[in-house]
UniProtKB/TrEMBL annotation:
Keywords: Hydrolase, Membrane, Transmembrane, Transmembrane helix. It is a multi-pass membrane protein. This is Alpha/beta hydrolase. One of its GO terms (cellular component) is membrane. PROSITE patterns: PROKAR_LIPOPROTEIN, TAT. It holds the Pfam family DUF726. It is found in: Membrane. The keyword Transmembrane helix applies. GO terms for molecular function: hydrolase activity. It comes from Natronorubrum daqingense.
């Protein structure tokens, strides 16, 4: 068993003994940190609406190269601002590509409800991708998922199965169990079959995932220390990660949960290097 998992299990056990309700406010406050200073998106910014059972896109032109940005918990109202912020960060790194916001029902103070909604959003995004509204075969489509948006991206891959695939998936500060991408995990098959490459950008400075996610989910977060396939106190070895999955440690570049995709800070240069 890894030292990280031992420490996390010990901490979570202590929290569980004290009662989750007593610490939920602290975890929630961590998620808010640094998430209120996005750049303001222009009017009529391109957006995919995943709040409906029939997802639709607005202000989206035909593009051969496209990045779809998926926000996290409590990010619905700022979805286009977050996507535009990423687009500007790309531009600063000489990566000229349109970014479209994928907006889903994440604005609830009930974390577990938002987590459940992320599964629905992932299936809807997969449905939109498969509906011939975008050319997955000849075009270049990349997904970037922040926090719970990372779970949406992984649910999308799981829903696509072997029928279609995207080029790249970048998980940033992913609020997902750290063994869910391992061979025996729920997302391994989708990663292996529905994307050319999946990269997980994680930071041990991300308190929202390193501590908040532990408390909310009683499990270690993928966005903190990367994948951990060595098993826990009562579970066996989870195998290894798929060959097209890579952990990228950006602890030195990312100091906060919402800094990953911002200009001048975060890890956008690493994303650009991997995309190109």
């Amino acid at each position: 068993m890894s030292r990280r998992r031992v420490l996390r299990t010990t901490a979570v056990t202590a929290v569980a003994g004290a009662g989750v309700a007593g610490v939920t406010g602290t975890a929630s406050a961590g998620v808010f940190s640094g998430c209120d200073d996005w750049l303001e998106a222009p009017a009529e910014y391109p957006e995919i609406d995943l709040t409906s059972s029939n997802p639709t896109a607005s202000n989206l032109e035909d593009e051969d190269d496209l990045v779809i940005y998926v926000h996290g918990w409590l990010g619905l109202e700022t979805s286009t601002d977050q996507a535009y912020t990423l687009e500007e960060a790309f531009a600063e790194n000489d990566y000229d590509v349109p970014v479209v916001a994928a907006s889903w029902e994440a604005d609830t103070l009930n974390y577990w409800s938002a987590e459940s909604e992320s599964e629905t959003a992932g299936r809807r995004l997969a449905s939109w991708l498969e509906s011939d509204r975008i050319d997955l075969e000849d075009g270049t489509v990349r997904l970037v998922g922040h926090s719970l948006g990372g779970r949406v991206c992984l649910e999308t891959l799981a829903a696509l199965g072997e029928e279609a695939s995207v080029d790249d998936v970048a998980l940033v500060g992913a609020a997902v169990d750290d063994d869910s991408v391992c061979t025996d995990g729920e997302y391994a098959y989708g990663i292996a079959t529905s994307a050319d490459a999946v990269s997980n950008y994680h930071s041990e400075n991300d308190d929202s995932v390193c501590y908040g996610y532990d408390i909310q989910s009683l499990s270690s977060g993928l966005g903190c220390g990367g994948a951990d396939c060595e098993g826990g106190l009562v579970t066996g070895d989870s195998g290894s990660t798929p060959e097209n999955y890579t952990d990228v440690d950006v602890t030195d570049a990312v100091d906060d949960h919402c800094d990953y995709t911002k200009p001048d800070v975060g890890c956008v240069p690493e994303l650009v290097d991997d995309f190109e």
